[in-house]
Amino acid sequence: MGDPSVEVSDESRDASQEAKAKAMEAISEGKREHAIEHLTEAICLNPTSAIMYAARASVYIKMKKPNAAIRDANAALEINPDSAKGYKSRGMARALLGQWEEAAKDLHLASKLDYDEEISAVLKKVEPNAHRIEEHHRKYERLRKEREERRTERERQRRRAKAQAEYEKVKKQEQSSSSRKPGGMPGGFPGGMPGGFPGGMPGAGSFPGAMPGGVPGNVDFSKILNDPELMAAFSDPEIMAALQDVMKNPANLAKHQSNPKVAPVIAKMMSKFGGPEK
To answer: For a tag on the chain, would you pick the N or C end, based on fewer CB atoms within 10 A?
Structure first.
């Protein structure tokens, strides 16, 4: 293989053409190996000629050596990107290798640059195969997109199911929390008022509705839970703190009797325990 970057003298060009002529004569006599030798000599004498590479590529095609033909065709196209013979030779070589799509592309380019009957004949064999491959690619791409869409949909459903499960879990927790409230006093008196006010309510004589001796065991707390005023009072932190203080130590009742906010609530609660309010 020659060097396409070297300077070629007129004598070398003439000698290259003589070698090419000998190659054409050898081809006409069926002596393809001799033709390759003469064309190789021509390339060495004038490595800047795309025609010489393309001519040798065409001989390699006749010898059923497509890879060698493609190498020479590529060399020809590197020297001259508009070499019709370069595209033609490469297209025919690719057809021999079953590279139908690439072959069709090269042959169409060759036909646009310099149409001939041989290109047309080869295209008639190449194009049906190229079309089948193109259809296969389109079908594969369609199936790939469908698989991707199904995968995306499965992922969407998985996320939706996960979100729904989380929602149901939170909902059940809220329902469970809600269902426990009727069984006790909201805001910190679970299970009712444990033990009542042991030992009686101090100052019972002066506190309306007070119940000496503690809260009876048969108290119906639903009366308290169904009283909207008491339920509203239980949401007041000051009132709840006072009630808890009294439950810890009933003797603390006295210090809350003067609180205008707390005393009425305790009085109303005790009226529920002991009977109707006065």
So the answer is: C
